[in-house]
Specification:
Helices cover 67% and strands 0% of the residues. It is mainly α.
Length: 155
């Protein structure tokens, strides 16, 4: 993942969190604070892994980015639905939408890597078991009908 992308994710959220206690006075707006804190926690975990020079596995990246995108969608929906009541600036909503689109792009890449890795493992396992299509002894045709047993012992 690009370091600049993770660092910029949540900038819109960070700007809003600072002003949120004042705006969260309206009843029902507390949910926005919770959503933003969850987002900030997810971004912090991604940044911590990056600072520690520890690479996330594709599975970890896919999972975390999926949660981040889900959180972003919930945040954008809540902010849009409660914009007037909670006094949420339109620039915040636009920033969240842009952040979430970036996160969705990274999630797609990470989850595609998981799929590719699973496919490669499946192929390697199939070849290790002798079940490849190029193996004439794999039993994949109507003539042999199964694996051919190779005689054991002295020939």
């Amino acid at each position: 993942m690009a370091s600049g992308v993770i660092a910029t994710m949540g900038l819109a959220a960070a700007a809003f969190i600072d002003a949120a206690p004042v705006r969260a006075q309206a009843s029902g707006c507390e949910k926005m604070q919770a959503l933003l804190q969850e987002r900030q926690s997810l971004v912090a975990s991604l940044n911590a892994a990056q600072k520690a020079k520890r690479k996330l596995t594709p599975q970890q990246a896919c999972s975390t980015m999926t949660r981040l995108v889900s959180n972003g969608a919930s945040t954008v929906k809540f902010a849009t639905d409660n914009q007037d009541w909670c006094q949420i600036p339109p620039s915040f909503i636009e920033g969240m939408k842009a952040d979430n689109q970036k996160a969705a792009g990274i999630r797609t890449q990470a989850c595609n890597a998981v799929k590719q890795q699973a496919e490669l493992q499946r192929r390697a396992q199939q070849q290790a078991q002798g079940g490849g299509a190029n193996n004439p002894f794999s039993g994949g045709d109507s003539i042999t009908g199964g694996g051919v047993r190779i005689p054991q012992g002295a020939l």
